[in-house]
Amino acid sequence: MTDIAIGIIGGSGLYQMDDLENRQEHQLDTPFGPPSDVLVSGTLQGVPVVFLARHGRHHHLLPSELPFRANIHAFKQLGVQYLISASAVGSLTEAIKPLDMVVPDQFIDRTQHRIASFFGEGIVAHIGFADPVCPQLAALIADSASHLSFEGVDVHHGGTYICMEGPAFSTRAESHLYRSWGASVIGMTNLTEAKLAREAEIAYATLALVTDYDCWHPDHDSVTVEMVVNNLHLNAHNAQQVIRETVRRLHNAPFVSEAHSALKFAVLTPWNTVSQKTKDTLELLLRPYLSPDS
């Protein structure tokens, strides 16, 4: 099949793109096992895209159970160059209210039990990650969201996303700690994706959708599960509109991201010293840098 340049990851509440036409499911195998679910390709307003429900279409995977490497590798197999990740988050500041949208430009890693690299097993690579999202793609998402002018929804371009392990939410003491660090939102998935997308040379950015204030807020106890679930549905509706607008703009004006050459000088291990098994595992990622006789 023809390569699909634009990928979409749907988080909690966003399990499909309602306007996706010409749908085709792809049950892909990867060296890291199966992805979270089938990837669904199709067109949004005539633009080819491919969608994956991060937690599975029936939301059966905990954040710590997500096959992050398989998910990103599957997008790479389909030729994805730009990856838009929608994610439910809690707010860590009064200025970011439920239903707001945040396009973060930084992450802090509080995960504990995840493999966040394709490398190892006899090969070492160190990617640059000072700016963990693609600034051009992030700006495109933020501009698209602002252009749509959702009533009562503010769009925040920039901010720090705390990525915690989960599945339990923060303690109140942790929530106050993260606020003291100046963090903006908290979630459980996006940093791991961002690291792997960078290693896969895919431009990546997050559309963070606020469902509620984290437990630091004095009125947190007044927030019910029903309210949070309702916000998830509202966020999913708004997110689909933002993604459609971003896809349209990206299709009309594609760009070269620094992420697209992230591995150019990252690998330190001579290829001829790497085992055949590891070579087979990483060939898709390193193909642009291998000589014909490698």
From TrEMBL:
Reactions this protein catalyses: S-methyl-5'-thioadenosine + phosphate = 5-(methylsulfanyl)-alpha-D-ribose 1-phosphate + adenine
Pathway where it operates: Amino-acid biosynthesis; L-methionine biosynthesis via salvage pathway; S-methyl-5-thio-alpha-D-ribose 1-phosphate from S-methyl-5'-thioadenosine (phosphorylase route): step 1/1
Assigned EC number: 2.4.2.28
Statement: the UniProt record of this protein carries the keyword Nucleotide-binding: no
Key words, A-Z: Glycosyltransferase, Purine salvage, Transferase
Keyword ATP-binding set for record: no
Taxonomy, superkingdom: Bacteria
One GO MF term attached to the UniProt entry: S-methyl-5-thioadenosine phosphorylase activity
Assembly notes: Homohexamer. Dimer of a homotrimer.
General function of this protein: Catalyzes the reversible phosphorylation of S-methyl-5'-thioadenosine (MTA) to adenine and 5-methylthioribose-1-phosphate. Involved in the breakdown of MTA, a major by-product of polyamine biosynthesis. Responsible for the first step in the methionine salvage pathway after MTA has been generated from S-adenosylmethionine. Has broad substrate specificity with 6-aminopurine nucleosides as preferred substrates.
Protein name according to UniProt: S-methyl-5'-thioadenosine phosphorylase
Species name: Phormidium yuhuli AB48
Lineage of the organism: Bacteria, Bacillati, Cyanobacteriota, Cyanophyceae, Oscillatoriophycideae
